[in-house]
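Z., the sequence and structure:
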Amino acid sequence: MNWLDRSIAAVSPRWAYKRLAWRSGMEVFDAGSRGRINHNWNPSQSPNEHMKATERSLIRARAQDMERNSDIGGAILSAFDRNVVGTGITLQSKVSHDLPGNIEGEFNRQIERLWKEFCKAENVDITGTQSLEEIEDMSIRRYIVDGGIFLVKVYVKNTKFPFKIQVRSVDELDTKNTIVTPSQGNRIVEGVEIDQHNKPVAYHFKKVDGYLLNSVETVKIPAKDVIFLYKKTSPQQVREVSNLATALPRVKDANQFVEAVSIKERVLACLSVFIKKDVPSGGAGRGVRTSSETIDYSGVSLAPGMIGELNPGDEVQTVVPSGQASNAKEWITTLVRLTSAGIGLSYEAVSRDLSQVNYSSARQGLIEDRKLYKKLQKMLIERVLTPIYLEFLDAMVLTGQLNLPKYQQNKEQYTTHAWIPPGSTWIDPLKEVKANETALASNQDTLARICAERGEDWRDVVAQRAAEQQLIRELSDPEPTATDIPKEGADNEPDEENKDAEDADDAA
C-alpha cells in the first residue's frame, strides 16, 4: 500500500481494504499486480547502473570463489576454454596482389611471419609471461567470471616489438574516484570517466606498488589506449557484471546439496558403538560416578570403528533424513540443467554426460552451443584481436621492419585480413561430408564457409589438393624408359610377313 492507503487503513481498515480490492480488480497485467501472490515481489526502481554498483563486487567475489572451489563452475569454464579459443585463432593477411611490390603475396608472408613472432610471450605481453593465445584464453575466462577485462596498449623502448599488451583486472579500477570536471562536462562512474553522451573518455586505475594496489594514488589512462571487453545489456550501463550472476544460486545449491549427501553417507558408513550406563540408584560412595566426572561431548565427532562412552542416563538420538541418497542424481541433474541454460549452454556441454542423447538430439545441442561459441569468437576478433593487429601493423611500419610502400595512402588495402577460428568436428563425419557434397553441387554452400568451420583456409586446401594430385599423376605415370623409346632411323614399319597376315585377315 502507498502512504494514502496506509493513512486510510489507520482510520478505517474496511475502507482501505475495499480500495485495495478495487484497485487489484482493475489491474491489466498479472505481473503488475500488487496482490497477495506478488506481495513480496518489490524490486528497486532506481537506475540500472546504481543498483549494479552496490552488488557488482560481491557478485564478482562469489563468482571467483565458484571458479576456485566448484566442480560445476570448472566445467562451465572448461567448455568455453575448449571451444572459443581452443588451439588458437589464426591470422591470414589479405593484402591485394595488385599493390606494387607484392609479388606472389610477398607482403602477406612478411606480415604473417612477423605476427607469428609477435604472438610469443616475450614479445606481446608486457610481463613476458603469456602468449597472445594464452591472453585470449584468460580474456574469455575473465569475461565469463568477472564480467570483463582490460587490455592496455603500451609502448616500450629498445626492443624489436615496441608495442605490447598489459592485462589489467576490473578489480584494479579506482571506484572511490568520483571527481566531476564541469569544464569538460565529464563525470566518473565506478572508475570510468564518461562524457555527456556516456562515452568512455578515460579509465582510472589504482596505482600498483609492488604486489599491492594503492588505494590513494590513481593512474589515468585514455580510453583510446584501452580495450575494455565486457557485455553491455542496457543503455546506461558503464561497468561490467559477471556473466555467472544467474547461475551462482544454482551452483551454490548444488554444492551444498552434494556436501550434505556426502556427510550423510560418511556418517552411515561409520560403524560405531556407544556404551550406555544406567543411572546410579544409590547415594554417594565408592564406585558411583560423581558430577565432577561427567563426560564432555563438545568437539566429539564420529569416526569409523569408534567406541564411545555416554554419561549415565544419556542416549544417542540420531536424525537420518530420508531421500537424499535416492534422488541425488535427479536433483543434481536438474540443477546442472538450470545452470547450463542460464549461461546459454546445453546440459551435455557442461556435464559431459551423453547417456541420454541420440544422434539428432546431440547434434541439435551441439549446433546451439556452437552458436554461442561463434558469437564469443566474433566478439573476441572484432574487439580484441583486430585492434591489436592494426596497432601491430602501425608499429612495424614505423620501426621499418615492414616496408610497405605508401602505407598511409593505401592503409585500407594493407590492413585487409581474415581470422580463422579453431576448427571443430561433427558427431558423424560421413553424414556431414555427404551433406557438404550435396550443398556444393547444388550451389547452396561454398567451399570457403565449409573450410572455415573446420578452421582451415579454402585457398590452402585447394593448393594442397592440387599439389597432391600432381604428385600422384607423376608417380602413377612415370616417364618412358630408354628401352621404350624407339631408336632414330629404326624401321618402324611392320615386316612383310606380319603385313601379309594382316592383309589376309582383312580380306577374310
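The two ends are 120 Å apart (CA to CA). The mean pLDDT is 81.

Let me know what you think.
H.
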